Amino acid sequence: MTQGRRNLLSGLIAAIFYVIWSIVIPLEIFKFLATPEAAQYGIQLTQQELNEFKYWIVAFGLISTAAVFVRSSSPKYSSRKAIANLFVIFANCMYFYIYVVSGVTDISTQVVVEGSAVQFHMNLDNIILVNLGIYALNIIVTIYDLIISMVSPIEVEDEYTEELHEKEVTMEKYGRFLDR
Questions:
Q1: Using an 8 Å Cβ cutoff, are 92 and 128 in contact?
Q2: Do residues 35 and 59 lie in contact, with contact meaning Cβ atoms separated by under 8 Å?
Q3: Other beta carbons within 10 Å of 72
Q4: pTM for the full predicted model
């Protein structure tokens, strides 16, 4: 299998996993949040809000998936891979922002155990902010990778380029022999 086909296969596999992770699973979670069972956890979504969240999850999920495909199918150490990675990071930041705006990061419920009620409250906004901070650090590293790939590109050797190099050496060797 050539390097180009291997890169395309790698991109396709990464895109499939990313669709499952960023679109299918969140859609199922939001589908659950619109049920009456989710209301006992203090989360109440109207059908219009649910449709809006579904739209944005699919929209940003598809944008991110396309960028993940480009990133995964790009050769190592290329500027195309760094630019796609930067785009994936920005799309993921917007994706996290959807969760902050949706209100699903604030969960409260009442648990009744043997006649006594306990109020349980959990706010996940700080976890989202920590993830956004990690993405900010990833942006810095990715910009550094982009600068390095533009200043000193690294050529990755594969079977095809090695074969071409051997042919060039052979032609050069015979060319010197014929010039004598």
A1: no
A2: no
A3: 22
A4: 0.67
At 109, the amino acid letter reads: T
Task: Give the 3-state DSSP-derived string for 2-67, with helices as H, strands as E and coil as C.
Answer: CHHHHHHHHHHHHHHHHHHHHHHHHHHHHHHHCCHHHHCCCCCCCHHHHHHHHHHHHHHHHHHHHH
Nearest CA-CA partner of 153 in 89, 103, 99, 82: 82
**pLDDT tens string 26-49:** 899 888 877 777 777 666 677 787
CA distance 150 to 144: 10
Cα–chain center distance at 103: 23
Structure token pair of residue 32: 């659950």
- Matching residue, tokens 């990464």: 14
**What is the rounded distance in angstroms from the CA atom of residue 43 to the CA atom of residue 33?**
7
For the chain, which residues make up each domain, given as ranges? 3-155
Name the packing angle between helices 47-73 and 3-19 (round to 10°): 160
Q: Are 9 and 51 in contact (CB under 8 A)?
A: no
What is the average pLDDT score of the chain?
80
* CA angle (14, 15, 17) in 5-degree steps: 65
- Residue 89 tokens read as 């990071």
- Amino acid 122 reads M
